[in-house]
Write a structure and sequence with these properties.
The chain is an alpha/beta fold and about 425 residues long. The chain has one domain: TIM Barrel (Alpha-Beta Barrel), CATH 3.20.20.80. It has 13 helices and 11 strands. Strands 9-8-7-5-3-2-1-11-10 form a 9-stranded parallel sheet. Strand 8, helix 12 and strand 9 form a beta-alpha-beta unit. Helix 1 packs antiparallel against helix 2, helix 8 runs parallel beside helix 9 and helix 12 packs parallel to helix 13. It is globular and about 50 Å long. The protein starts with a helix and ends in a 29-residue tail after the last strand. About 45% of the residues are buried.
Length: about 425
Amino acid sequence: MIVIILFTSFKSVAFAKESRIWSLINYYLNKINAIENQLKANAIEKMPALNITEPSAVIPNSDVAETPRETSTEEKEPIIYKTEELKIKPNEGVGIINRMKTPDIIKGIYMTVSTISSKHGQNMIDKLLESGGNTVVIDIEHGGGLLAFTPKNDYLKSINPGSTTLDNLPEIINELHKKGLYVIARQVVFNDPYVGSRKSEWRIKNKWGGLYDYRWLDPSKPGVQNYNLYIMQEVADLGFDEIQFDYIRFPAASHYSIDCHYDEEKFTRSDIINDFLSKARRLANDKNIELSVDVFGAIVWGGVDWKIVGQDVAGIAKHVDAIYPMTYPSHVNPGYYGFMNPWGNPYNFVHDSVQNFVEKADGNAEIRTWVQGFPLKISGFGSWFMDEQVRATYDAKGTGYIIWSPGNIYTLSWPSFSVEPTPEEASEEGTGG
């Protein structure tokens, strides 16, 4: 059915401009990708739960700041705990890892597990280098949360055994390094349907009873944090240059009705996120690897969104090397904070957003933009759209960008890697237009 739709669409635009054709290709490929991910998620949800007992001394609980509210069905776990040292059991047999120096300006693309493991992916890498790119972000999990490699740690393997798809990641990374590429691992943190469908005790609750969306783990649960630190260690040992946390937040939907493990009268959601990042920072230092996070672009506008999801830029910046805001023009409507035409004039929205991020980070973390490389809501989608976002990032003092296309279609994005900052004398600050 999908093939018929694609064929019909291609036939109907046979005489249209090239940009229109590629917009339709992007649209349908992204639709297909979304359908495949939903099918995987549905299959995962139906799988049986695991009964796992986690190790008792992974992260010490001796210095507990608070105790949880009384419950009759859960083991009492610390809500917020200070850890002077992490007791993550290291993997054996890990030798010296030579990591690439971080480029002064990051210029890269995002690649899925299926893309990086294919011949098409290798051709894409060649095109990236030919276009002037220097960085690639690679998923380390399949769409539903199953790890794309086989973990070494027994505890981690008992929860998420992984697949063999990218068991050759060290070799892949080594080849990318030989080509001069900086390699980033994208680790999805608190949105994990694979584990959520297996460990219900790690899920968020509803205040009126029952469990919230199975895809979301409770960021304040020590076991959830622990699990993600083990994944982080595995990824660092594979040879990546940087670990980039995505979904490092609370869910944005149903935020008034969810019931998490922490005491809401004493702590904020930002406290939880920053507490976890402080642990990840220490592990990153031990592994000599860069640490970064993806965040909503909206958290620098107004005083509500960042509190809901727990993403406080100033606080996060103290624990990470870089912040990647998702300042996608398609994700805001005309009139949003005075930006009357973000879809047709992306420069001003991206520029002013990045500028706000730079100011809030206050020099503690670099700001690198996620550039929208997909045609959602964009009329006449073409290279100009990515060009404007890249130029806006440079002009707002961002230190690089990664182009995001869910279907990994970058045909119209390659020219944007040659975009340079606006000359100083011609540069103007965004006006909110």
